[in-house]
Design brief:
By secondary structure, the chain is an alpha+beta fold. The chain is built from eight helices and 23 strands. The chain has helices spanning about 30-40, 75-95, 100-105, 105-115, 125-135, 140-150, 160-165, 240-245, and strands at about 1-10, 15-20, 50, 55-60, 65-70, 115-120, 120, 180-190, 200-210, 220-225, 230-235, 250, 255-265, 275-285, 290-295, 305-315, 320-325, 330-335, 340-345, 355-360, 370-380, 390-395, 400-415. The chain starts with a strand and ends with a strand.
Length: about 425
């Protein structure tokens, strides 16, 4: 299965490698660097790169590339999902997954990778099992490790969850405050043409949970409109037959943070576009042009749009832009030609705009096409698809837990053509 794993930073340095079967020399990553050089952005790098004797399967996340080396044909999505699981585990252990964090926690990272893969095959990937095998870092343990020169991270007993038919939950969990929180998060990926019509629009949604309940609770979660959930991916804890017959989520939850399910809504008529952009970009013969953009709310069900960021990638012939925003700040990178406007919160009574002049290289012809505008935003207490949790019931335990639900809509790959 997976022979080796290389972790590469944005500068192209391989700062960590791990081998499970035979040692594969790091020069194999030259094929990856070659593909990286041809790609315009990290998203454009092919996820699978074929070499004469190996396949390189890679992901990009948190400013890091994870490159897995395999020698035989394997299910590609299986490896990609496992690479994401590795990063999720690092985030759970260290609270962050950056190059500096991984370098600080080298010992625990190698111990985790040893437990997660056995001879190149996934073994222990559930966080509660891993946390009993490899204890998460804390200050006292770090001091003890430094003083004694030995690692005290490895647990002395076999995890209870490893042998049960509920491997995602350990036994004997106890909390003073029993609570369960559910975050319904939806990201809108859309392309809007220059007239404001929707070319494509889809929703990538997921339900993230933080469950801190004592004992072995059995939960049932129902929706007001479950028919909206068609293309769904579940956490292993969910009883699939119950969902198929009753459209109800029945599960024994893992302890702590986990993703209960993710879903995709591709029907364009179900996707409400919550923002609009009015634009006027023109170039003059000679050395200049005019630029004006207005951002405002469209279908937000009365909710406020926050954390709005507008990004415009200008053509290479643009030297500089001199703009005046009515709200927020803007920056322009003369190397990448990207203008970033940090709008912040949008007031529907006073919609923000930015306008000014574009400076072109002298003697260069006006650009043939206008730039594409990308927009990021957040809307709290709104799930744009209309999905809504109806109720949560708990069986198997006597106490009454505190329950909370939060809805968030975000801009994913949201582009407006100008």
């Amino acid at each position: 299965m997976i022979h080796s794993l290389f972790i590469v930073n944005n500068s192209g340095d391989i700062f960590m490698e791990k081998h499970w079967k035979s040692v594969v020399h790091r020069s194999i990553c030259d094929y990856f660097f070659e593909a990286q050089g041809k790609a315009a952005s990290p998203d454009d790098i092919p996820p699978v790169i074929v070499t004469p004797h190996h396949y390189l399967i890679n992901i990009y996340r948190n400013q890091l590339y994870l490159v897995a080396v395999v020698t035989t044909e394997v299910p590609t999505l299986f490896v990609i999902e496992f690479l994401h699981r590795i990063l999720d585990t690092f985030v759970e252990y260290f609270g962050d997954c950056s190059e500096s964090t991984i370098k600080e926690q080298f010992v625990i990272v190698y111990e985790l990778l040893d437990e997660m893969l056995d001879n190149g095959f996934p073994l222990a990937t559930e966080s509660n099992v891993l946390k009993e095998l490899i204890k998460p870092p804390n200050i006292l343990r770090s001091i003890a490790n430094t003083v004694t020169g030995k690692s005290t991270n490895v647990g002395s007993i076999l995890p209870t969850g490893q042998l049960s038919n509920v491997p995602w939950r350990r036994t004997g969990v106890k909390y003073t405050n029993n609570e369960a929180y559910f975050d319904v998060i939806e990201e809108i990926d859309a392309i809007i043409d220059r007239s404001g019509s929707t070319v494509t629009a889809e929703i990538q949604g997921y339900i993230d949970c933080r469950v801190k309940l004592s004992g072995m609770p059995d939960l049932t979660l129902s929706f007001v409109n479950p028919r909206l959930l068609d293309d769904v991916s579940f956490h292993p804890c969910i009883r699939f037959k119950r969902w198929e017959s009753e459209k109800v989520l029945s599960f024994v939850p893992p302890d702590g943070d986990f993703r209960l399910l993710s879903y995709h809504i591709g029907a364009q008529n179900l996707v409400a576009i919550p923002v609009y952009i009015k634009h006027n970009i023109s170039y003059r013969e000679g050395s200049g042009g005019r630029f004006e953009i207005t951002v405002g709310p469209k279908q937000t069900m009365g909710k406020t749009i926050e954390n709005t960021v507008v990004e415009v990638t200008f053509p290479k012939t643009v030297l500089n832009v001199t703009l005046t925003p009515t709200q927020g700040k803007y920056t322009f990178d003369p190397v990448t030609k990207i203008m970033t406007w940090d709008v912040g919160r949008i007031d529907p009574l006073k919609v923000p705009s930015i306008k000014g002049n574009i400076s072109l290289q002298s003697g260069a012809p006006p650009p043939e096409s206008n730039p594409t505008v990308s927009i990021q935003f957040t809307i709290s207490q709104l799930a744009v698809s209309g999905i809504k949790i109806n109720r949560l019931d708990m069986y198997g335990e006597k106490y009454k837990p505190f329950k909370g639900v939060k809805y968030i809509t975000k801009g994913g790959k949201f582009q407006v053509r100008t």
